[in-house]
Amino acid sequence: MSTNANRDIAVAILPLVGGAGNVTSVEHCMTRLRLGLRDRSLVQDEALKALPDVLGVVEDDTYQIVIGPGKVARVTPEFEALVEEQRPAEAHAVSADELAAQGAEMRAARKAKNATPFKLFLRRIANIFVPLIPALIGCGIIAGLNGLLTNLGWLPSVVPALAAMASGFMSLIAVFVGINTAKEFGGTPVLGGAVAAIIVFPGVENISVFGEKLAPGQGGVLGALAAAALAAFLEKRIRRVVPEALDVLVTPTLVVLLTGLVTIFGLMFVAGEIATGIGHAANWLLDNGGAFAGLLLGGFFLPLVMMGLHQALIPIHTTLIEQQGFTVLLPILAMAGAGQVGAAVAVYLKLKNNASIRKTIRSALPAGFLGVGEPLIYGVSLPLGRPFITACAGGALGGGFVGMFSMMGDKVGSTAIGPSGWALFPLLQGNHSLGATIAIYAGGLLVGYLAGFLFTYFFGFSKEMLVELNADPKTAPAAPEKVVASGTATPAETQPALQHSGS
């Protein structure tokens, strides 16, 4: 897509979110444009959903517009530039104070309903790790390529270079987590990175805690997160009492000193035990729960994606990758996307006359095969209702298939996080041959596709839904007039196909 086309998308979206004066922040993840808004009531939801390039909207701590993978990274800079261009021109018309006053009551009600401490905590954790995903993906794919070349005995002179590229980021990931954590909790990012760097410093092996030598990297990303959060907490309180003239010298020194001591003589050991427990728990779950554990994990992942809470699992995946070289959970969770794809194909075949829904499915399926589920969730299955449930059922059976093999001793893992679906193949790794690992994962996808399709085809629609939805709105006959209370006749309103509740 050309730059002009990306700007056109931004131009279409901006007035529907209240204009530049209503936008306080602009960010993006893999599929969504995330906006901070002063006044939620100024957003025109239905008009946004009707835009051809918008696949759905999600209201969370930020207002999230689903645009799709790749495209969102190109639209976001255009949107940011547009906001900066228009903000001065709009400032005279609507002030920040006026917008804040208009939206104060609505924001308070929304926060009381949705901003529970648990949800806010999970969102903060996600905000720390989401910016790291591109590097995790790139290094993970290089690691997979390096493993393939090593097994084949090809290009031995290149293998060490690829190993350095793949391992460099992972060896220092604690530092990046520390930087993002300090930023998220209101501290100085570089101080968060400084205290997190203690964890990966080779010299900690000379320090004994509770009678045992520390190991470089002990505690991993969990220790780095805790250390940087503590540093941000101390920094804000130290600044309150240190004279301004001495702040630049005293505050960072005390932050690094105090947090460093707590990290070395407490956090590294505690976080290391927790990280080890996570690894043991994941392996125990699949070794003993097998197919049942896979059913639960694969079946409940789509609802997490729907709520935007799936990214809170990133620290667990990252910890498993640090410990074992791969995460055994991601390939099972990826089966949810397979169930979603199978369900979408069934919807496509059942609604033969609904050109609108079929067009949405055709545009969203490629992303679905690559493991990006939001376009199909928000564009097809969730608005229809029942197909979302049958898609979850398909993902459950796919997860059960992979979980069954895990209990039999054939573990399937991923060397990085981010991709799923077909995009996960280059990242696959297990405890047996690469061919066996790929075969099990591919088998799980096929089970998920087939189960999602069959469940949706036979149980995804009531008779009423089929009558209402299985028609092309452009060619359907005009609805009969209905009599209203006043006795006058008005045309019956046709419900939008994608707003059906499925109840």
UniProtKB/TrEMBL annotation:
InterPro entries (UniProt xref): Glu_permease_IIB, PTrfase_EIIB_Cys, PTS_EIIC, PTS_EIIC_1, PTS_IIB_1, PTS_Sugar-Specific_Components
Transmembrane segments: 128-149, 161-179, 186-204, 216-234, 246-271, 291-314, 326-349, 361-381, 388-408, 438-459
The protein's name: PTS transporter subunit EIIC
Membrane topology note: Multi-pass membrane protein
Active site: residue positions: 29 (phosphocysteine intermediate)
GO terms for MF: kinase activity; protein-N(PI)-phosphohistidine-sugar phosphotransferase activity; protein-phosphocysteine-N-acetylmuramate phosphotransferase system transporter activity
Location of the PTS EIIB type-1 domain: 7-89
Superkingdom classification of source: Bacteria
Any Gene Ontology CC annotation: plasma membrane
Renumbered residue ranges of the record's region Disordered: 480-503
Organism (species): Streptomyces coryli
Keyword Transmembrane found: yes
CDD domains, per database record: PTS_IIB_glc (cd00212)
Location of this chain's protein in the cell: Cell membrane
BP-aspect Gene Ontology terms: phosphoenolpyruvate-dependent sugar phosphotransferase system
One family name in Pfam for this protein: PTS_EIIC
Polar residues bias spans: 487-503
Domain PTS EIIC type-1, first and last residues per copy: 123-475
Keywords tagged on the record: Cell membrane, Kinase, Membrane, Phosphotransferase system, Sugar transport, Transferase, Transmembrane, Transmembrane helix, Transport
